[in-house]
Amino acid sequence: HQCFPGPRPVVYLQHGFLADSSNWVTNIDNNSLGFILADAGFDVWMGNSRGNTWSRKHKTLSVSQEEFWAFSFDEMAKYDLPASVNYIINRTGQEQVYYLGHSQGTTIGFIAFSQMPELAKKVKMFFALAPVVFLDFAFSPLVKLGRLPDILIEDLFGHKQFLPESSVLKWLSTHVCTHVITRELCTNIVFLLSGFNEKNLNASRVDVYTTHSPAGTSVQDLLHWGQVSTLWVQLGTSVQDLLHWGQVSTPWVQLGTSVQDLLHWGQFVKHHKFQAFDWGSRDKNYFHYNQSYPPVYDLKDVTVPIALWSGGHDWLADTSDINILLTQLPNLVYHKHIPEWEHLDFIWGLDAPWRMYNEIEKDDFEAVRCSLVSKKHANYDCQAGVPTSDAFLSL
């Protein structure tokens, strides 16, 4: 999605795990980062990761085929992000874009910019909100799920999509979460996976948030994340407990992804490494990587200037994991830690405009700011179907 007119500085917003581009515009206009940046004169583009509600097209495959869902955030970084950035640059005539990612959106950026130096040259600055790279100290129920054996996750969820959007969930969001009595229940369920900061959430918007969630991804994505940490085993839980978590939380948090995406997250948890997806055998890894084990991503190769924001009550991007990440970034130019914030405050927090968004809008953008452009006079255009080199239609 693009908000324009006019040749203006370009910012590309990338959502997190199980989310979609609506994250940036579902609050009221003066509380939504997408609108705030557009009002400040920027050409705002919002990406959608493959497998979510808005990114389910392929040149030769259909969503009913397992091959369609054989992706994780690896493919989002290797194919989707370069295709989107190149498309935006060609469309706008700009030489560089600002990249802003939240949660898995930061993971995609770290992979892409460490592996593709030519792509990194096209990024003026990387704004990392609640970055998720290491999961050694995270204690979200999602982390527990990712610690399960890959074969069990695949038995539970299959080999295709994970938590897709559905009409039933939309009905629950619009007919249950809109009532005063049940709104608090919906609000608390939103917090279950990311941390609690109820006072900073606009409860009147919960039905709006949940109407757009879930959007979908692959189970392989979660398995990939499970290769990072062992803390899930230390916390301990039962399969029945995990299934219960899924029953109470999925109507409000899922936007969908692939099972492979889920598996990839699980690999992050299990292996303690920021690495490519492990295909499960030496032969398969050799086929994909020309070596018998998945390559490790070296964060020291990320030369793009990085501004990073973290939260003290974030159950996914834990402070201890953030501290590990900070030591490995060679071009970190700014870091702000907000002790009260949890994972969703970065996109929906009531105080986000003056605690974070104003810094993004003014401090680093000041040299290229345009005159104020009112969104009331802006056009909104959906640019769907940007082809990637592996035949997906992204963005």
From TrEMBL:
Q: Which Pfam families match?
A: Abhydrolase_1
Classification via InterPro entries: AB_hydrolase_1 (IPR000073), AB_hydrolase_fold (IPR029058), Lipase_euk (IPR025483)
All copies of the AB hydrolase-1 domain together span: 9-228
**Keywords, A to Z?**
Glycoprotein, Lipid degradation, Lipid metabolism, Signal
Q: Which domain of life is it from?
A: Eukaryota
Identify the catalytic residues. Answer: 103, 314, 343
Does Cell membrane count among this protein's keywords? no
Q: Which GO terms describe its molecular function?
A: hydrolase activity, acting on ester bonds
Give GO BP annotations, semicolon-separated: lipid catabolic process
State the similarity comment. Answer: Belongs to the AB hydrolase superfamily. Lipase family.
Q: Which PANTHER family does the UniProt entry name for this protein? A: LYSOSOMAL ACID LIPASE-RELATED
Name of the molecule in the record: AB hydrolase-1 domain-containing protein
Organism annotation: Myodes glareolus (Bank vole)
